[in-house]
Amino acid sequence: MKVIEHIQKAKSTLFSIEILPPLKGKSIQSIFDGIDPLMEFKPSFVDVTYHREEYLYKKREGGYLEKVSIRKRPGTVGICAAIINKYHVDTVPHIICGGFSREETENALIDLQFLGIDNVLALRGDSIKSEPEFVPEPNGHHYAIDLVKQIHHMNNGKYMDNELADVAPTNFCIGVAGYPEKHFEAPNMISDMKYLKAKIDAGAEYIVTQMFFDNEQYFNYVKKCRDLGITVPIIPGLKIMTSRKQATALSKIFKIDIPQPLLEQIEKCESDEQAKEVGIEWCIEQSKELIKAKVPCLHYYTMGTSEVTRRVASEVF
After folding, report:
1. What CATH number is given for 3-316 in this structure?
2. How far apart are CA 243 and CA 250, in angstroms?
3. What residues are annotated to the active site?
4. Average pLDDT over residues 114-130
5. What ranges do the domains of the chain cover?
6. What is the mean pLDDT of the chain?
């Protein structure tokens, strides 16, 4: 079932999670171990992130360096299929611009369609760590809107080879990311909102937000979207803080603000265990307020921390 259909049929706020593929060489059992404790809350869908290639320079004979491409967390498509098979829960693979040509993107989408996966989250993706800014693949997409357009075209039976006969259209529900505190590369919030509106106009059907720790950021963001004519569901993304260093690390990595009351509570903690308890309680209160506001779904970025997600979900669902 499509994400948008889950939302339309729901009588109350839905529960969903996002997971990371395991590191290369690890068993998929680690994925199942993380999902099992959360199944009692009946997640409507599970997002599976996609991680693009990185580059290492390995010294070879003669002293020269060879540039080697590696992918630390492969397996997104296989994990989605395994989750559907084991739990009978819908999955949402992330599709990114980075590392894909347009033809490779088309072929990946065909694979997903053959597997019966009808949801995707279209993202530009991060730049390679060794590059100062995002660089698309040759004949690849530079922006998420271009990826949305390609998926939307395939939904309408338009493939790259326009000479194909009797083509079968795909049937993907397309989600995109939204940033309540604006994307860090956007010059200002107005510009960021215009880019978001363009993605919706291009065919995206729902929005999942970047993590935030102040619900007012979300409520204000939703109002700005509605004022701009964006009417699709806007799903809040939540992260549970689990250590003292995350107060600064999350802010630095994701370019988000940490509310002063939360920061002061974390700073008083003498251990990560205490900080985790603060993070859990903060997320519980966040979740309750959002449910009271009748948000369509609460989407938890689990990052392998199913135990804390379970504790939050047990208090609010």
Report:
1. 3.20.20.220
2. 11
3. 18
4. 89
5. 3-316
6. 93
Residue type, 91: T
What's the pTM value of the predicted model, to 2 decimals?
Answer: 0.93
Where are the strands (E) in the chain, listed by range? 14-19, 45-48, 54-59, 65-70, 90-96, 119-123, 173-178, 206-211, 234-238, 297-301
Block residue for tokens 């989407």? 299
Q: How far is CA 260 from CA 255, 265, 267, 301, in A?
A: 16, 9, 10, 22
State the CB neighbour count (10 A cutoff) for residue 129.
Answer: 7
Encode pLDDT of 44-103 as tens digits: 999 999 977 665 556 666 666 665 556 678 899 999 999 999 999 999 999 999 889 999
Q: Which two tokens stand for residue 286?
A: 């966040």
Report yes or no: 144 and 105 within 8 Å, Cβ to Cβ: no
Q: Which two tokens stand for residue 29?
A: 């059992």
- Read off the pLDDT of each residue in 260-275 and give the average, rounded to a whole number: 96
